[in-house]
Amino acid sequence: MARNQEKLKQRLLENLAKVPNISVVCENLNVSRATFYRWRLEDAVFDENVNYALEAGREVISDLCESQIIKKIQEGDNKMIIYYLSHNNQRYKPYTMSYREKRIQQMPLVQFQGPDGKIYDSFEEYSIGEKERIRKIIEDNKS
Length: 143
Prior knowledge:
143 residues, mainly alpha, 2 domains, two-stranded antiparallel ribbon, 68% helix, elongated
C-alpha cells in the first residue's frame, strides 16, 4: 500500500510540473484534494516537492504564454505589442500617480511667508523639524 502511495505521489509531482493546477491533476489521477492536502501536511518532503513542481509548472505555462505573445507580435498584433512593451519595458509603462501625489494635486495652493522671508507654496519644501518650527513661529505671531 505504501509503495503504491509513493508511486501516486510521484505521478502527482510529475503532472504538477506540467499542469500547475492541483484540482485538475488530482481529478486526472483520481486522488481527492483532501487526500492530496493531507499528504502535504503529513509529509514535509512531499510538501516541498509539491512547491517545486508547482513552480516548474508555472514556468512551463509562462513560457507557453510568452511564446504565444511573441507569435502575435510577429504577426503585427498591435494590442500584443502594446501589452508586451507596457509590461516589460520601463519606458512604456503607464504612469500612475501615487496616493500622496493625488492628494497633493487635489490640495488648494496655499502660499505663506516663511521665517526666512521667502514665499513658499506649501510646507512640502520643509523637513518635519522645520515645519514644526514654522508652525510655532506662526502660532506665536497670532498671540
